[in-house]
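S1.2 Input.
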Amino acid sequence: MNIELNINEIFYSLQGEAREVGLPTVFVRLTGCPLRCTYCDTEYAFKGNNLLNIDDILNKVKKYNTQYVCVTGGEPLAQTNCHILLDRLVKENYRVSLETSGSIDIGDINPGVSIVMDVKTPSSNESDKNRYNNIEKLKTKDQLKFVIGSKADFDWSVEILNKYQATAGVLFSPVFNTVMPSELAQWILDAQLNVRLQVQLHKLLWGDEKGK
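S1.3 Output.
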């Protein structure tokens, strides 16, 4: 069966975010996203026409000596065949993570996949797209991410955490070149908030370069 996905790029780098930060990882970036967040750093993935069948995708992944694969976007779940790709990667014994906006239902994702779900803060201008019922579907293996662009974003995120009791790990990440990491760190400490400060390692290493 010739099952295809529209792929923006497949590349090998260090994971810059979340629990696997610093680990060599193959990134499979799918094309397309229904959201237009103000702080998006992958706008180049919104459009393109590069259809690859899943066997070809797996062959490209296998070129690299790592068990870590991150499926990202855009919004990967906007392509329904993404579920088939995730299933195949899990079947091949990869340690698979999925980066998603949380604007699409996550209930049917393979349980072997570690989900990193982004809750859209007000400064993204897309917070009305959040599906808050996704939060209760996350497990302890998963992670919930808030990208913080202001103190107002921080306060709003704290309110969301208080309202929805997540079992997943929680990440607070500053918008690059908008909120200083040290500033966000102080807000977390002042609030005695039990979350993990996430600084994007790839941007510390390579700046805002595409594809890292």
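S1.4 Remarks. The mean pLDDT is 94.
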